[in-house]
């Protein structure tokens, strides 16, 4: 999966509560995470481990700012 796939998920699954993008080899970046943050505010669980540094502090800040229910 890439940012394009994540963009589609964000656009079509606004009620998404859990997302695991672990071990995606850098194919998911801050851009994909921003799409999720913008459209999936109800997210309560997110795993971004082992993404080869493609998801940075900036992406995490965006999620934290928009997805208040994350635990």
Tags for this model:
71 residues; 3 helices; 8% strand
Report the portion of residues in β strands: 5-15%
* Computed structural class: mainly alpha
3D shape: globular
Total helical segments: 3
Order of helices and strands: HEHEH
Q: Rg, please?
A: 11 Å
- The count of DSSP E runs of length 2 or more, i.e. the number of strands, is 2
Low-confidence stretches: none
Q: Tell me about the largest β-sheet.
A: 2 strands, parallel
Q: Provide the helix percentage.
A: 40-55%
Distance between the termini: 24 Å
Q: Spatial order of the strands in the main sheet? A: 1-2
Can you give the mean pLDDT?
Answer: 96
Please provide a written account of the structure.
With 71 residues, this protein is mainly alpha-helical. It has three helices and two strands; from the N terminus they run αβαβα. The chain has a two-stranded parallel ribbon. Strand 1 (18-20), helix 2 and strand 2 form a beta-alpha-beta unit. The longest helix has 10 residues, at 3-12. The protein is globular.
What's this, in brief?
The chain has 71 residues and is mainly α. The protein has helices at 3-12, 30-39, 57-66; strands spanning 18-20, 45-47.
């Amino acid at each position: 999966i890439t940012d394009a796939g994540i963009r589609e998920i964000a656009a079509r699954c606004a009620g998404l509560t859990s997302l695991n993008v672990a071990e995606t080899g850098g194919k998911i970046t801050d851009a994909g995470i921003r799409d999720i943050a913008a459209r999936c505010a109800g997210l309560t669980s997110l795993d971004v481990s082992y993404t080869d540094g493609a998801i940075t502090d900036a992406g995490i800040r965006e999620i934290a700012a928009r997805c208040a229910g994350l635990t």
